[in-house]
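Lab notebook: predicted structure, single chain.

Context: the supervisor wants predicted structures on file for every construct in the current expression panel, including those that have not yet been purified. This is the next one on the list. No modifications to the sequence; it matches the entry in the shared construct table.
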Amino acid sequence: MSLKRGHFYLWVITGINYAMMLFYSMPILLKAADGMLPFDARLTGYSPGLAARYVATISDEGRQFYLTTQSMLDAFFPALLALSLMLTLYRLAPKWPVLFLTPAAGALFDYYENAAVTQILLSATPDAGLVNMASLLTMMKFASVALSLLAIIWLWRKQRPES
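Prediction complete. Output recorded below exactly as produced.
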């Protein structure tokens, strides 16, 4: 299989995984928590008070779904997204491997965030320090993805022939 074809299939698998979280998991989690966004979907993070409200609001079934189905889907997504972004960066700038650190960091932030969110969901009263760390990881995850996408757009525009 060619690099181009493998890259395409990797993005397809990443997209399917994301679509399953967005169109299958998200509606279930939103309903189970009276419309409150799950932790890892909060672009600007969350406070200990908001985390406590979420933990108090989400139904037992919703919590179990978050800890099983959503966690399983989100176990694959960070690696898939990081690999997709890294391969895109490689194809656009193979001599700049330092660019690969941004999506790799995003995946690490996401995995640590997932572990922290699991601990938050398992506690009756979430620890403020844990919530603050999880919130920071959430924001760092989104920042890493945004930086990766900006680098891809910049490199792609730079390589386009001028019209």
